[in-house]
Amino acid sequence: MVLEIIEKLKVSSKASNATQDFIEFDDGTMLWNASLVLLNYICEHEDSLKGKRVLELGSGLGHLAVGLCRVGALVTCTERPKELIDLTASVQKQLSDVRLKLEQQMTAPETCTASSIRIHSKNYDCPSDQETSQHLASSSTSCSMGSVDAVALEWGEEAFCRSPLAREEVAPFDAIILAEVVYNTSYHQDLLWTIQKFSHPDIVIYSVMVDRPFSFMFFAQLHDLGLYDVEPITEYDSLGMDKNMVHMHRITMKKK
Ligand SMILES: C[S@@+](CC[C@H](N)C(=O)[O-])C[C@H]1O[C@@H](n2cnc3c(N)ncnc32)[C@H](O)[C@@H]1O
After folding, report:
1. Which is nearest to 2 in space by CA: 87, 95, 138?
2. Is the pLDDT of residue 10 over 70?
3. In this structure, which residue's CA is closest to atom 1 in ligand 1?
4. Does domain 2-253 correspond to CATH entry 3.40.50.300?
5. d(CA 117, CA 148)
6. Which ligand 1 atom sits closest to the C-alpha of 187?
């Protein structure tokens, strides 16, 4: 569980993690350190995403999405249609683990628990959505969790019309998350199109990548659109990551 891994990294020998851009679990799945860096930054900063509608592009196994849900964000995590089954299964597993943990903690009266966690998985061309809700008794309303929707979304204009996000009325997102998604230059144009599709004057976009200097071409292309301000974020040090490897950015729309 990502929040627990972050806490361990803060107290353990950080250097061993700083040299690698991912952690491998016993079942062979991977957790990209970039997502830990961004989640840690969001947890530590006032501009937290609690109660905010968050769109994550290229969510992988949804570790960051679940972490953001646990700090109160209403997350729509997205993946290519063929990856959506794995994303949904992983999110369900992580949220079940969170629920178990919280239920164990509920014996302590001062413990804060979630009020509701929800998974709503939607793929392309699927007549009925698959919805799983996990409701938890709440002992504190001041610290409830958010939700996670898992939705198929492939980047680019041509693929967009097949996504459930194109078919239905979707309220604007407050933030877009890009964690380790700008590694492949052949996807840059499609990714830029998708970001623009969900942008509005108040959107905040967070991008994070570890050890991918070649990916800066993406930011050059973003800059050339003339629509966005890109500001580097340098306060990520509490996980002990190498400053030369971590690149985190906050992207907002230029004010007219
Ligand atoms: C390096 S992984 C990062 C996963 C996740 N963001 C994380 O930090 O753990 C990149 C993800 O982007 C997704 N992806 C790549 N190209 C995509 C595309 N054209 N449309 C949608 N997702 C894409 C991949 O399926 C993959 O899960």
Report:
1. 95
2. no
3. 180
4. no
5. 7
6. 19
**Confidence band for 170, pLDDT divided at 50, 70 and 90:** confident
The pTM of the whole model exceeds 0.90: no
What is residue 234's predicted lDDT score, i.e. its pLDDT?
A: 80
Domain ranges within the chain, ordered by starting residue: 2-253
Q: What percent of the chain has pLDDT over 70?
A: 75
Dihedral sign from CA coordinates of 39, 91, 58, 182: positive
Mean pLDDT over each residue of the chain, to the nearest integer = 80
pLDDT in tens, 128-161: 455 544 443 333 333 468 889 899 999 999 999 9
Which tokens in the block code for residue 242?
């190498």
CA of 177 to the centre of ligand 1 (A): 11
In angstroms, the CA 35 to CA 22 distance is: 9
Closest CA to 214 of 189, 240, 242, 188: 188
Could you tell me how far CA 179 lies from the centroid of its own chain? 7
In the structure encoding, which two tokens stand for residue 117, read together? 């966690």
Measured by CA distance, the residue closest to atom 13 of ligand 1 is: 58
